Amino acid sequence: MSFEYFFELFLGGLSRGSIYALIALGYTMVYGIIELINFAHGEIYMIGAFTALIIAGILTFLGLNHFAVFVISILAAVIWASAYGFTIEKIAYKPLRKAPRLSPLISAIGMSIFLQNYVLIAQTDKYLPFPSVIPEFEFWEPYSHIIGSVELVILVLTAVIMTALTFLIKFTKIGKAMRATAQDRTMAMLLGVSVNKIISFTFILGSFLAAVGGVLVASQMGQINFGIGFMAGIKAFTSAVLGGIGSIPGAVLGAIVLGLTESFATGYISSDYQDVFAFALLILILIFRPSGLLGRATTQKV
Amino acid sequence: MIKAEYLKKSVIAALWMVFLTFPIAVIKVNTIENTINWRWVNALFAGAAGFLFSYIWNYFQDKKNSPKNKSASSDRFVLLGNAAQTKSVKNAFYISVAVLAAVVPFAGPYQTTIFTTAMLYIILGLGLNIAVGMAGLLHLGYAAFYAVGAYTYALLHIHLGIGFWLALPIGGLVAAIFGIILGLPVLRLKGDYLAIVTLGFGEIVRIVLENWNEFSKGPSGISEIPGPWFFGMKLNSYQHIMYIYYVALILTILVIIFTNRLQSSRIGRALMAMREDEIASEAMGIDITKTKLTAFAFSAAIAGVAGVLFAAKTTFINPQSFTFMESAIILSIVVLGGMGSITGVIIAALVLILLPEYLRELGNYRMIIFGASMVLMMLFRPQGLISNVRKIYKI
User: Fold this and answer.
1) pTM for this prediction
2) Which residues in chain A have Cβ-Cβ distances shorter than 8 Å to B14?
């Protein structure tokens, strides 16, 4: 029993962590390239979930089968979330590239307030039931209470996406350009990298991942409202910093550590203080490793 | 001035906005009654907004880039910054504030309450300005200290029956202690790492207040907190509003004087030196540890005082008043004002607090306008309303 409980918490934490990782990657990639904490990123995640809800609603209305609804709604969420990410960068951050450091941060907070209230006005302020787009199936009969089909889909899907992302960044031309831009923007530009396009691409990629995360969380939780982006965004940002902001494997590691901590703290100690444990862990780790788990300690030149 | 180039860009922007807002603004699915509501008129609005915004933006971009206007516009801003420093302008500014303050109470209790809130945020903005503007320590959990002040007064009143005037310094002191407690572990952290730790600290304080029922009465909060004592007289609600207004005014003036004096003091100069270059300032003999902790403590103490004032003003507090949004708004006041500039902070606090108050009639549209104007203000004045010009010492 106790081992089974432990295992259940472990898998729960892993699936929670892998969703944090999907969102955290967007933060860390954007930070790596333009050194901006994109506070509107949580809102992209929320918009992805809402788009999926709306499209899934229409498709169910038209009477499509379960699998088609799942694929098309997740596709729609990804397309529109990426479009939002792209547009936000063009409107709110691009004109501020040369501005003082805190200005784009305030612009991002403003954008976040704007998007939340846009969804609030255009849709509703109530919690909406989210259709269970992930089909329930039986796969591991006597132990299915330990890991449900939704958690399994989340784990497999995030693992596939992360592998694809690693491949994209390590071995493709655009991935190389992204790494070059992150290292030295001016030098990358001199060597023929179209920096504006790379930044846009980063935002699109980050929004893509956030939208997938949004749909997965929403179908696990069963309900969404306009405010879900805020806590998810903060948690994802915490994971990114925990792992060392700017580092892609760091974001994944940080997210999984955070997910596991929350899951175990909730399971063994108290569910009221779940977020306190997350932030306390962050503070504790940063005291001993001031640049995160996998962050490079930068030596300061005098 | 109509250019074909602008029109083409704006039409593309309009079409893009229609596409972008299509699922969320146009379709509304009701899953319970199984109906779909198509609101095509919203697509039209989105298109029109996209067209207008793009047109105006392109027009301004062109105007800004044309060589004729380039020097003139940048000079004007420097002049504005310099003007804020000269003595006569400063005096005029203070006199106008004083006159405004004397006139407002005659405009009725509703207006007076709004202006009390605005002054509360001036105090908070100036307090955060010490950490963010002067010392360059990005702080995203400032509302925590504000909460500490408010809860200190509320709890002291419940358990020990302590009144407002005694709670005021105690609230500041307790908040300062919390500032040092936060400051100690984060001494080595820089930039965004510091930002997330302070954010986490703010959230921890709020969550603890929300869940520790025996201590803070949880989410339902603490009510019936008394206003300040006034020579043993019992004040009715109208008198209470007026009295709090003047107390807030006096505190605001004191905080303005304090931060102004701090800026030119030895500590203030150490803070600014640390902001510019930590290593160089250390080499000049500034104790970085002590200076950082001083910045945290001063800025937290001011938030604590503001918290006590807030508790006395609303007579009711709960953890929902101290969310991250609160910290974000206070930070926006500092950045919008132009970091480090006292005049800028005052103007920004008035703009950011009075704007949503007077837009209250617009209901739900109030916050969307607030968010949009935050973005727009940053786009048009990224360096803040009044850029802080360095003090020049004449020999």
Assistant:
1) 0.86
2) none
